[in-house]
Design goal:
disordered C terminus, two-stranded antiparallel ribbon, disordered N terminus, mainly alpha, 70% helix, 2 strands, 9 helices
Length: 384
């Protein structure tokens, strides 16, 4: 339109233009309401925590599209643990056309003390050892050690293997074993003498009682029976004194042979076992050293060297223990046998010489207490 031009009503078109503007406004207004409705629903969805937790489709009239699915979601939310928030749980509800059920995804949530809940799964404890595996390992080591020692013994008997020999110590051990056999023979003979002497003393006592009885009943032989009764009773008394000395000698020699010497021989057996193990692992190490040295044999050689060192230390320790015990045994043996041999000699000499006073002094010198006449042999508790 040019300036200064005045617009007038168009003939036949004024009402149509007004009607077109109204129609345009009517068309724009519903669209604005629809936009406003969408924005309000979005704001309400952000404000409501339930809408962020579950998406429930509704129809235009505001009713639920699927009542069963809604009740499932509602029951599921009620069954959630109290420590699990809605913001940490996502519940997805599919349309009614879908055949899949609702999916619940739960994430980690902080528990007490601010620590995250650990995922469930198998727990492996490295420090706990299986007893069956330990026993199996012990059996394996024992079998390997037994095999090596058996092979060493067989090779020594066949003259193929070498053995470590301590000449001085081996000589002392041989002397000890030989002396033990001789002491056992002396002990056996002394026990036989004691048994025979006990029977003789018992017979003399009974004979003396018989003579005394006849002395009272035979007046014409009163003196003769009386003399014999007194003699037999005196012999029985001296025999009991000698029997006490012999039993004391037997007890002392028995302790020396069956306790002191036997304990030393037990240490000797342990020493010999340690010597066999030492030679077995020494032979093993020598065979490995003679073979090739490569990546596969070097670990075996190193392990064999360690085992050889362990058994060498054990062998040296046992050899030292045997030497010390042999030394103490020799000192104890000399002291014990010296006293017991003096006692045995003096008691036998005084008894057959008829010197009752000297026989009693011999027992007092060695602090020997005699039992009452006619008493049985002491029990094993009294001997201890």
């Amino acid at each position: 339109m040019l300036p200064g031009h005045r617009a007038g009503p168009c003939p036949g078109g004024g009402m149509s233009e007004h009607r077109n503007e109204s129609t345009a406004l009517d068309e724009i207004h519903p669209a604005g309401e629809e936009v406003q409705s969408d924005s309000e629903e979005g704001a309400m969805a952000q404000e409501s925590p339930k809408n962020s937790a579950a998406e429930i489709p509704v129809t235009s009239n505001g009713q639920l599209e699927d009542s069963h699915e809604h009740s499932f979601n509602r029951d599921l939310k009620r069954s959630l643990p109290a420590g699990l928030g809605l913001s940490e749980t996502k519940i997805t509800s599919h349309d009614f056309d879908s055949t899949k059920e609702g999916v619940v995804e739960a994430g980690t949530f902080p528990g007490k003390g601010g620590r995250a809940q650990q995922k469930s799964g198998p727990v492996v404890l490295d420090e706990v050892k299986n007893p069956a595996m330990e026993k199996l390992e012990l059996v394996r080591k024992w079998s390997l050690n037994t095999y090596k020692c058996t092979r060493q013994i067989i090779s020594e008997k066949l003259g193929r293997g070498s053995r470590t020999v301590d000449l001085e110590l081996e000589a002392q051990i041989d002397i000890l074993r030989d002396n033990k056999k001789k002491y056992e023979n002396i002990l056996k003979l002394a026990q036989t003498l004691s048994t025979q002497l006990f029977q003789m003393v018992h017979t003399q006592r009974q004979l003396g009682d018989a003579f005394a009885d006849l002395s009272l009943k035979s007046l014409e032989l009163h003196e003769e029976f009386g003399y014999n009764a007194d003699t037999q009773k005196l012999l029985a008394k001296n025999g009991e004194t000698l029997l006490g000395a012999i039993n004391f000698f037997i007890a002392s020699v028995n302790t020396l042979v069956n306790k002191t010497i036997e304990d030393t021989l037990l240490t000797v057996k342990q020493y010999e076992s340690a010597r066999i193990e030492y030679d077995a692992y020494r032979t093993d190490l020598e065979e490995l050293n003679l073979g090739p040295r490569d990546a596969s044999t070097l670990p075996k050689i190193e392990q064999s060297q360690q085992m050889f060192q362990v058994h060498k230390e054990k062998y040296d320790k046992m050899r030292n223990d045997v030497s010390i015990k042999l030394k103490f045994l020799e000192e104890n043996k000399v002291k014990v046998l010296h006293n017991q041999l003096v006692l045995f000699h003096n008691a036998i000499a005084a008894y057959f010489a008829g010197n009752q006073k000297q026989l009693e002094q011999t027992l007092q010198q060695f602090h020997i207490k005699l039992k009452t006449p006619g008493a049985d042999a002491p029990s094993w508790l009294e001997e201890q």
